């Protein structure tokens, strides 16, 4: 994307409109800027309405393209409630996704040359024909249910439609069982409603924000970061509970450096303080909640002194923070977090957070949690989906409260097993790099080995493409149209995504891929349109607006229909639980054989010489998706291992030294990582940012940089309630010598 | 007219949006940056403090880079913005050596480049790209000579510091602490 | 423990982790400029004092060096520029606050003058009148009567030439190693010393050689004094200056600085010259070569080490 930079700066230097004010200079030939004048400001740019796909927040944006048709700049949509005109660094760096020349360019089909397996380039015809052929074969032999879809984001939606039309409901996304699943179940069991996405946290009006391990500011949940900043401006108190001194912790009035894996103890002791010091919202509990007496009994012995022994947080700090929360109530948020699959009892921990919020009376109150609403986008007409004999529900039936497909169950069902009634034979993977999101690499590889067929659709040659039989190059979000975004928020809004540039190389949009496969499978009735923009146009017209209007504005707001955002004083409100009330004591859980109220369970601690592996996010990256993006790679091209100075002294580690990791199961990291000696991490843990350590050489900027933390996660603690995979129970030892250099004789 | 930038370190999370927005707005080649983020950690666990700052050319009033430029390519325009005229720059590097903030660099096309306070946007009444994109709204830009501007108000009501004040450069980027 | 780091991976070529903007061409130019300044100064003073027939080596033979040195130096400078096509911009303005501007103009005036000086001895060099080029002889005839005026003009020019290289560096308050006022006089003294050393090498009579040995010894003593002064000043300065000094004394440049610049470049030649003054027979070329080497290495060290020192980070 080489442009004449000089002409741009030259014009900007001239366009000052004033003569240069030099210091003492005998300008012999003064350059008169007025002569050269203010030229037409640079190259005129065209803007197209879109919404970002770099992460799940889906901020609406304007994509600016130059006269060559290349995307040069992305600016947030001013009226969008997801970003208020300010994109996060990943969104701004989205141009890199478009310009990255390491992108997948042509469809690839696995073949064997000279005994070695490799990919050969193919035409779309060939690739799509092969997929349709294999899908038909496997459908006929094992039923369409045996073809699974592992997905994420917008491409996933199109393929989900295809799969359902095919007759398969074997659909799962890592975002459930590897990320936010437990909190949805935990909050549903308490308030009858998922937390959802984006979270309905009223941070901008809160007086107290409590973060349990959540690292807002390092995660870049756009409006949450913006609102946290507003809250800081208004003097709100932030309480951070984290063994690591996160950025949020540095802006907190109280940072509780908790011992890892002991959060439930702290939460229970907070409940104790609120209840026994009479600080909880009596009126709210009396009116809306069930099971208070049982809860009171339950937390009687969970005193701050008891919690101190477990969490290492001083009792007076526990009391002080509880009082601070109560002081701010109901404008207080005990944040549910997002990635909560930690130790296997995560649904119960989320329940504790939900119960705390209930005691503080924050659910449905200003400064706490608002009642979110979205507008329904009408479905484009298509025939009814055929019935399926089994799907994600059956695969996950061991986990009674699983409310979405569990990826790990789909993976397990792919391993041939005579006792498995639901055999999965083929996968389509779209929009997710499962080698980085699914822990327990052995299980994943065993499953992939056993598959009859695997298709991967992606924009970049991520590590997962190395396992596929067919690789489809997807056009990036800047080059395609996708479904109308309608997410829950304070007020309903919709945003459109229209193609800003032509697809580079031979990439194609996800909707086209789904339609092409569908037509080859005889499902053209489900794809009764030529261009996806026809679908968008029809849907917008049904919603009282038009494609022309959205092309102009990008975003449209709608008025709320479900009533007020907050509970009116004394309002009779029915929660969507089976009792209609907030369930502090969950009969539902008890009936299924689980603890009706959360209890603290001790989790394994790192053995001597090992350190707990903690991982998190960096604000300029989205997991592994952006590691190779030229703009974002320029900001951060590798992760570092955070090591406490005490540990560095014991192990004789210097800042910047390359080390390797070996975990409790003997797994050794492929690559090395540089050490960052810092006071910000506890001495029993190490920390690194997730999403690095790529092995595919085609990712020229990302290959071999840093360590893939998922590789070190071989021990998985499964949540019995909904199947979430707890990943923070892995311990690593630090190796200063390269373990791969030892040659075996 | 004295343009200045005020950055609230209490709100900055170091996300580097300002860095990448500047790059896309001003076509800065990948591998170079006109602004950057620094992190300073003090103390020992668990009594730790953290300061995050977004730094760039400070558009100093007493700019050593303008003083030492042999051709006058480095100059100050109305409003106090320090700019470089590419076709007067010979690439001698004196200005780079003279900047205490190491804010300048040699552009691959040969001339010296640095933050321009996005003055092509400022003259249209917009703020610099970094200020408009910051997701924590911690950056402010305005006229110090206007006593009612946001930047004047902030500097009146909050504690602030500048970088390397002992260098005598009179910088125009202020950090609220 | 305190940590200071860049988060957004700032890794600008030639700026991080430390400045690498000025390379060997600059050091070579500083050396050649100082050398030329020294020779021009001495030859001009001798001419003004009317002693040019006595000290022919200085006035006639050594002055062959400055035109070559200045031209090479200028080429080296232009080679180091990254935007060389615009070099002419240097001469569209005079910026009194920029030592580099002074330097550009001084060079513009001095270099032709040194060529003209050499031309005034053209006939004396090309003894065979048939080999002489006509118009050069004409120029020589025009210039010879003005030799004394040229010398008067060249004295201040050579001083400016010798001192401005030091002032150029000392004006950068962002480089702690350079930011002290001693650097100007120090570079001038070093330049004069290397100039004297060249004259010793090209001297045509032992009287000349002895005179300049004495002058050179005095200059070396002065230079040593200034260097000590500079180091003591940095030692008593701010933290960044202390760290800068530690690069030279006890850091990566200690060997180069103490070994080549101080010992081999100053102390050893000084002792040899002292021995000669006391009557012992020594090869005059040896101290002269060492001084030249020391001068060159000194400038290399200052340019490289100076760029490693920074104010922040």
CATH architecture of chain B: 2-Layer Sandwich
Task: Count the DSSP helices of chain B.
Answer: 6
What does the radius of gyration of chain B come to? 16 Å
Strands of chain C, total number: 2
SSE string of chain C, helix = H, strand = E?
EHHHEHHHHHHHHH
Radius of gyration of chain C: 21 Å
Q: Helix/strand-derived class of chain C?
A: mainly alpha
Give a description of the structure:
- The complex is a heterotrimer of chains A (745), B (177) and C (313).
- In chain A, 30% of the residues lie in helices and 17% in strands.
- Chain A is of the alpha/beta class and 745 residues long.
- Among the domains of chain A are: 218 residues, Dimethylsulfoxide Reductase, domain 2; 125 residues, Barwin-like endoglucanases.
- In chain A, helix 5 packs across helix 20, helix 6 packs parallel to helix 20 and helix 10 crosses helix 14.
- Chain A is globular, with a radius of gyration of 27 Å.
- The N terminus of chain A is likely disordered.
- Chain B has 177 residues and is an alpha+beta fold.
- Chain B has one domain: Alpha-Beta Plaits.
- In chain B, the strands form 4 sheets. Chain B has a 4-stranded mixed sheet. A two-stranded antiparallel sheet of chain B has the order 2-3. In chain B, strands 4-5 form a two-stranded antiparallel sheet.
- Chain B is globular and about 50 Å long.
- Chain B starts with a strand and ends with a strand.
- In chain C, helix 1 runs antiparallel to helix 7 and helix 7 packs across helix 8.
- The longest helix of chain C has 30 residues.
- The radius of gyration of chain C is 21 Å and the shape is globular.
- The interface between A and C is medium-sized, with 17 and 12 residues.
Q: Topology of this structure?
A:
The complex is a heterotrimer of chains A (745), B (177) and C (313).
Chain A: H1 5-14, E1 25-27, H2 33-36, E2 46-51, E3 60-65, E4 71-76, H3 89-92, H4 95-99, E5 108-113, E6 116-121, H5 124-142, E7 147-151, H6 153-166, E8 171-172, H7 174-191, E9 208-212, H8 222-233, E10 237-241, H9 247-250, E11 254-256, H10 263-276, H11 282-288, E12 289-290, H12 292-298, H13 304-311, H14 315-328, E13 332-335, H15 346-360, H16 392-395, H17 407-413, E14 426-430, H18 434-437, H19 441-450, E15 453-458, E16 470-473, E17 482-485, E18 493-497, H20 510-520, H21 532-542, H22 547-553, E19 555-557, E20 582-583, H23 587-591, E21 611-616, H24 630-635, E22 640-643, H25 645-651, E23 658-663, E24 673-677, E25 685-689, E26 717-718, E27 725-726, E28 731-735
Parallel strand pairs in A: 7-8, 7-14, 9-10, 9-13, 10-11, 12-20, 14-15, 15-16, 21-25, 22-24
Antiparallel strand pairs in A: 2-3, 3-4, 5-6, 5-16, 17-18, 18-19, 21-28, 23-24, 23-28, 26-27
Helix pairs in contact in A: 5-20, 6-20, 7-15, 10-13, 10-14, 10-15, 13-14
Chain B: E1 3-8, H1 17-26, E2 35-44, E3 47-56, H2 64-68, E4 74-76, E5 82-84, H3 94-98, E6 105-106, E7 112-113, H4 119-122, H5 129-133, E8 139-143, H6 150-157, E9 160-161, E10 173-176
Parallel strand pairs in B: 1-10
Antiparallel strand pairs in B: 1-8, 2-3, 4-5, 6-7, 9-10
Chain C: E1 3-6, H1 24-48, H2 56-61, H3 65-80, E2 93-95, H4 99-119, H5 122-125, H6 134-143, H7 147-170, H8 183-202, H9 206-235, H10 239-248, H11 254-277, H12 285-308
């Amino acid at each position: 994307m080489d442009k004449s930079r000089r002409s741009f700066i030259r014009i900007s230097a001239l366009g000052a409109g004033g003569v240069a004010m030099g210091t003492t200079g005998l300008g012999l030939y003064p350059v008169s800027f007025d002569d050269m004048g203010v030229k037409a400001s640079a190259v005129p740019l065209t803007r197209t309405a879109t919404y970002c796909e770099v992460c799940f927040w889906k901020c609406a944006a304007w994509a600016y393209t130059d006269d060559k048709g290349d995307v040069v700049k992305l600016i947030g949509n001013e009226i969008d409630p997801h970003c208020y005109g300010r994109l996060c660094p990943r969104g701004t760096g989205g141009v890199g996704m478009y310009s990255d020349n390491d992108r997948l360019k042509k469809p690839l089909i696995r073949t064997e040359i000279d005994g070695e397996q490799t990919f050969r380039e193919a035409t779309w015809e060939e690739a799509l024909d092969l997929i349709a052929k294999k899908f038909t074969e496997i459908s006929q032999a094992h039923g369409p249910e045996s073809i699974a879809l592992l997905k994420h984001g917008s491409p996933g939606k199109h393929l989900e439609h295809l799969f359902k039309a095919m007759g398969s409901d074997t659909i799962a996304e890592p975002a459930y069982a590897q990320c936010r699943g437990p909190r949805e179940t935990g909050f549903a069991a308490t308030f009858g409603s998922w937390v959802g996405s984006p979270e309905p946290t009223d941070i901008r009006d809160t007086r107290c924000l409590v973060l349990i391990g959540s690292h807002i500011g390092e995660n870049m949940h756009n409006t949450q970061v913006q609102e946290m900043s507003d809250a800081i401006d208004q003097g709100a108190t932030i309480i951070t509970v984290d063994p690591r001194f996160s950025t949020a912790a540095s802006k907190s009035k109280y940072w509780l450096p908790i011992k890892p894996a002991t959060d439930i103890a702290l939460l229970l002791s907070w409940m104790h303080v609120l209840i026994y010091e009479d600080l909880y919202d009596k009126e709210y509990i009396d009116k809306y909640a069930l099971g208070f007496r049982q809860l009171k009994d339950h937390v009687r012995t969970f005193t701050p002194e008891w919690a101190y022994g477990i969490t290492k947080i001083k009792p007076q700090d526990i009391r002080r923070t509880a009082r601070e929360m109560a002081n701010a109530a109901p404008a207080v948020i005990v944040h549910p977090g997002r990635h909560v699959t930690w130790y296997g009892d995560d649904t119960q921990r989320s329940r504790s957070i939900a119960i705390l919020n209930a005691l503080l009376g924050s659910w449905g109150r200003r400064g706490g949690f608002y009642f979110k609403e979205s507008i329904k986008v009408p479905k484009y007409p298509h025939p009814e989906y055929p019935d399926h004999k089994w799907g994600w529900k059956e695969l996950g039936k061991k986990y009674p409260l699983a409310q979405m497909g569990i990826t790990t169950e789909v993976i397990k069902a792919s391993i041939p097993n005579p006792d498995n009634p639901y055999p999965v034979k083929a996968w389509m993977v779209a929009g997710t790099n499962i080698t980085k999101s699914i822990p327990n690499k052995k299980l994943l590889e065993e499953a992939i080995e056993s598959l009859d067929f695997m298709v991967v659709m992606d924009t970049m040659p991520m590590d997962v493409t190395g396992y596929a039989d067919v690789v489809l190059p997807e056009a990036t979000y800047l080059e395609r149209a996708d479904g109308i975004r309608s997410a829950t928020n304070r007020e309903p809004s919709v945003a459109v995504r229209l193609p800003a540039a032509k697809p580079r190389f031979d990439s194609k949009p996800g909707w086209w891929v789904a339609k092409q496969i569908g037509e080859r499978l005889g499902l053209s009735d489900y794809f009764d349109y030529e261009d996806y923009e026809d679908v968008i146009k029809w849907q917008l017209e049904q919603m009282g607006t038009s494609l022309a209007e959205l092309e102009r504005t990008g975003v449209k707001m709608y008025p709320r229909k479900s009533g007020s955002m907050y509970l009116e004083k004394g309002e009779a409100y029915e929660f969507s639980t089976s009792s209609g009330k907030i369930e502090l004591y969950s009969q539902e859980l008890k009936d299924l054989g689980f603890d009706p109220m959360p209890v603290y369970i001790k989790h394994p601690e790192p053995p001597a010489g090992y350190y707990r592996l903690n991982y998190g996010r960096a604000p300029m990256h989205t997991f592994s998706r952006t590691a190779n993006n030229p703009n974002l790679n320029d900001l951060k091209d590798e992760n570092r291992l955070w090591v406490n100075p005490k540990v560095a002294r014991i192990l004789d580690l210097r800042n910047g030294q390359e080390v390797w990791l070996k975990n409790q199961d003997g797994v050794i990291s492929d690559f090395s990582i540089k050490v960052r000696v810092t006071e910000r991490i506890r001495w029993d843990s190490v920390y690194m940012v997730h999403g690095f350590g790529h092995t595919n050489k085609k990712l020229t900027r990302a290959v071999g940089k840093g360590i893939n933390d998922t590789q070190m996660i071989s021990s998985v603690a499964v949540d019995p309630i909904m199947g979430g995979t707890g990943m923070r129970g892995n311990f690593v030892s630090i190796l200063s010598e390269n373990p791969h250099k030892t040659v075996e004789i | 007219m004295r343009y200045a930038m005020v950055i609230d370190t209490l709100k900055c999370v170091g996300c580097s949006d300002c860095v990448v927005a500047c790059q896309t707005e001003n076509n800065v080649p990948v591998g170079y940056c006109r602004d950057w983020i620094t992190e300073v950690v003090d103390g020992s666990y668990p009594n730790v403090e953290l300061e995050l700052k977004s730094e760039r050319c400070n558009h100093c009033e007493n700019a050593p880079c303008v003083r030492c430029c042999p051709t006058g390519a480095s100059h100050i325009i109305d409003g106090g913005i320090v700019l470089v005229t590419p076709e007067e720059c010979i690439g001698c590097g004196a200005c780079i050596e003279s900047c205490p903030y190491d804010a300048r660099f040699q552009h691959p096309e040969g001339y010296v480049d640095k933050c321009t306070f996005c003055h092509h946007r400022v003259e249209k009444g917009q703020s610099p790209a970094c200020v408009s994109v910051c997701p924590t709204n911690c950056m402010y830009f305005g006229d110090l000579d206007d006593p009612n501007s946001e930047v004047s108000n902030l500097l009146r009501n909050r504690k602030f510091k500048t970088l390397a004040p002992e260098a005598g450069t009179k910088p125009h980027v202020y950090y609220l602490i | 423990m305190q940590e200071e780091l860049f988060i957004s991976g700032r890794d600008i070529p030639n700026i991080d982790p430390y400045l690498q903007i000025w390379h060997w061409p600059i050091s070579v130019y500083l050396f050649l400029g100082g050398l030329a300044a020294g020779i021009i100064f001495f030859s001009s003073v001798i001419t003004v004092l009317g002693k040019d027939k006595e000290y022919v080596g200085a006035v006639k033979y050594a002055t062959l060096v400055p035109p070559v040195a200045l031209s090479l130096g200028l080429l080296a400078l232009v080679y180091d520029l990254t935007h060389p096509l615009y070099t002419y911009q240097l001469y569209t303005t005079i910026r009194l606050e920029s030592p580099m501007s002074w330097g550009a103009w001084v060079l513009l005036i001095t270099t032709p003058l040194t060529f003209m000086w050499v031309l005034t001895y053209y006939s004396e060099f090309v003894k065979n009148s048939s080999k002489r080029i006509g118009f050069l002889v004409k120029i020589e005839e025009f210039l010879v009567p003005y030799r004394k005026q040229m010398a008067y003009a060249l004295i201040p020019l050579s001083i400016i030439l010798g001192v401005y290289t030091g002032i150029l560096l000392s004006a950068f308050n962002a480089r702690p190693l350079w930011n002290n006022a001693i650097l100007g006089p120090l570079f001038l003294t070093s330049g004069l010393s290397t100039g004297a050393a060249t004259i010793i090498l090209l001297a045509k009579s032992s009287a000349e050689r002895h005179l300049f040995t004495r002058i050179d010894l005095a200059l070396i003593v002065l230079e040593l004094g200034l260097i000590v002064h500079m180091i003591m000043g940095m030692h008593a300065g701010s933290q960044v200056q202390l760290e800068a000094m530690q690069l030279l004394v006890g850091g990566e440049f200690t060997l180069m600085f103490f070994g080549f610049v101080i010992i081999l470049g100053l102390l050893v030649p000084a002792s040899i010259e002292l021995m000669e003054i006391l009557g012992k027979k020594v090869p005059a070329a040896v101290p002269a070569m060492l001084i030249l080497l020391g001068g060159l290495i000194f400038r290399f060290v200052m340019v490289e080490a100076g760029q490693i020192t920074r104010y922040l980070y």
